[in-house]
Amino acid sequence: MATERRTARTHDRALWARTGAAGAALALALAGCGVLMPGAGKGVDSTVAGPGVSDDAVKVVFVAVDLDAVQDATGFKTASIGDPEKQVAALEKWVNENGGLGGRKLDAVLRWYDAQVDSPAAEEQLCNQVSQDDQAFAVVLTGQFQSNARPCYAQRNTLMLDATLVANDTEIYDELDPYLWTASYPEYDAFTSSYIDALDKQGFFEGRDKVAIVAADNPVNRRAIEKRAVKQLKELGVTPEVGWVDTTDIGTIYQGEEQAAITFASKKVDRVMFLGGSRLASIFATIAGSKGFKARYAISTFDNPSFFVNNPETVPSETMTGMVGIGFQPAQDVQDAKLAFPRPGAESECLDIYKASGITFDTREGARVALPFCDAARLLKLGADDVSGAFNAATWSAAVETVGAQFETASGFGTGLGGPSRSAAGAYRFLRFDDECSCFTYEGDDVPFTK
């Protein structure tokens, strides 16, 4: 299957390499209207069992992206994620040997998604497969960047545990309540405020009254920038120049970022930050370097700092000089030499679950998919074991609201759940590029995300 995918996409290699995209699996981003479809998340009957729930079992689909195939197609360097099928089987075994999901067995299914052909139509097709063919109670999402995907699952009464690095803000969580959760990442409003506050503390805006923002043009990111970031920056005495980028596909990303680089250069803005992920940082740095535009950059986990370190031949080395930001997922941010692997607590617990099935990871980066998968399985179990009444998305969510503060994400820092929160990452650390090691390092202790 992987061979067929690689063969079918051979003609795209030149374009990927030319643009410096960090990988098709994460190069595409939120697109489309993102509007809640009729009936999604509304009128849940808490007395009726959810889809995929029987007296004996609960079906959950884990979605995996073939990142090794993407690496083969692009030539970009990244640690192998291992075998997701075996990882999901290990999680299924652990859950069922420890009481299952509230006494029901976990029936775990893995579905592969070819992110190289990502589109709203492809993600709707996957939604149909998960909700209709598999009839799953829940889906663990990776590589799902189109904004029609999550409303589709909510309309089908399918609980989502989002393990994709996408921007989900309070409004989208409220719209899709009780179906959308993340066991690994922060809520986007809190992230945006914390990101700007951290850059200010790191002196990124010092001596400047303007800053360029390269921004993914999607509804969530628009809300974050227009309602939050612009106001916060102006209060710091900094006027933002926003370069909106249509992230529908790699062609529109390249065109949007090229125009943004030209605009920033003409206005002599030499501080650039990124909002919206979508590999905007790595692609922009490549374009800017080719056009002689020089600036100091700020990034976050959403921009995958490890890509810059792993692929110095793609991004000009001077790009990283003085780079600062915030990180909330060590597997994407820093090398193991800069943060002991594994860390005690949830990360070690997850690695022990895999080790019991003969699965080990040489580096934390290699576990960047396995850890969010483990987070999702652990959170599913935590809520299920406390469900009262019929087992469905509404009763599961009510249980997590009650016991969620006990949950520690293995993928990042802090405990963000409990009460109305739907995002498990509760803290971040200051991130800085170190010229001596040519790598990113964390500075200081955990900082809670601003609410």
From TrEMBL:
SUPFAM superfamilies: Periplasmic binding protein-like I (SSF53822). It comes from the Bacteria. Keywords: Membrane, Transmembrane, Transmembrane helix. The chain crosses the membrane at residues 15-37. PROSITE patterns: PROKAR_LIPOPROTEIN. The keyword Transmembrane helix applies. InterPro entries: Peripla_BP_I. This is ABC-type branched-chain amino acid transport system, substrate-binding protein. It comes from Nocardioides dubius.
